[in-house]
Amino acid sequence: MIDVAPMRRSYTMSGLDEKDLTPTPIPLFERWLKDMIDSQLYDPNGVVVSTVDESGQPYSRMVLLKNYDEKSLVFFTNLGSRKAQHLAHNPKICMLFPWYYLERQVMFIGTAEKLSVPAVLKYFHSRPRDSQIAAWTSHQSSRISARSALESKFMELKQKFKDGEVPLPSFWGGYRVFFHQVEFWQGRENRLHDRFIYDLQEDGSWTISRLAP
């Protein structure tokens, strides 16, 4: 067994003070997202999505953020996937941006709603053609016999759709997550991290609180 207990480092890159906060969460999120993009690290829009199955068992996986506004975040997926099945019976969701190389995390808590077909279609046709074909190939989260079966199906569909536009699969879509809570975490020295949480109020305003690390 690898001894992971002594593995640690001190977080000294930055801090997050009250003066750095914005009245609403998205401008601060956007500032940090830009810092991540400028760092040229991989997948700055990668986000861990957590859902819960019918027995209360949580599951987490990485997806890519594909749009956002002042009230919501958007991602796309196979509608037969495990996450989609979870959201069908429990739309509550957590989305965590693990920007550890900048010693930061941002967590959004909210509720997911399916996107309309026109919204999904618009994004689907903006994807690389092979990615569109791959959406047809994979029945996400289903058990398969071997990778060769997946690759064989991909080549079959590539031939089938070689002429013209790739149609939108009926089992492929997306979600808009309306968030009501956002937490910003900035690593600090001696584990005295900075944590601020935004809570959405009924009148549409946000309250901000500092959390103990």
Question: Can you give keywords for this protein?
Answer:
Pyridox_Oxase, 9 strands, alpha+beta, globular, flavoprotein, single chain, 213 residues
The tally of beta strands, per DSSP, is: 9
Major sheet characteristics: 9 strands, antiparallel
Which strand-content bin applies to the residues?
A: 25-35%
Which residues sit in consecutive blocks of at least 5 with pLDDT less than 50?
A: none
Helix/strand order, N-terminal first: HEEEEHEEHHHEEE
As an assembly, this protein is: single chain
Instruction: Decide which structural class fits the backbone.
Output: alpha+beta
Number of discrete helical segments: 5
Alpha carbon gyration radius: 20 Å
Helix content: 10-25%
Q: Based on Cα principal axes, name the global outline.
A: globular
Average of the residue pLDDT scores: 95
EC number: 1.4.3.5
Function: Catalyzes the oxidation of either pyridoxine 5'-phosphate (PNP) or pyridoxamine 5'-phosphate (PMP) into pyridoxal 5'-phosphate (PLP).
Subunit structure: Homodimer.
Keywords: Flavoprotein, FMN, Oxidoreductase, Pyridoxine biosynthesis
Characterise the protein shown here.
Strand 3 and strand 4 form a beta hairpin. The mean pLDDT is 95. The protein has helices spanning 25-38, 82-89, 117-124, 129-137, 147-160, and strands spanning 46-52, 58-64, 67-68, 72-78, 92-97, 104-114, 172-186, 194-200, 206-211. The protein is α+β, with helices and mostly antiparallel strands. It is globular. Strands 1, 2, 3, 4, 5, 6, 7, 8 and 9 form a nine-stranded antiparallel β-sheet that branches. Helices cover 25% and strands 32% of the residues. The chain contains five helices and nine strands. It starts with 24 loop residues before the first helix and ends with a strand.
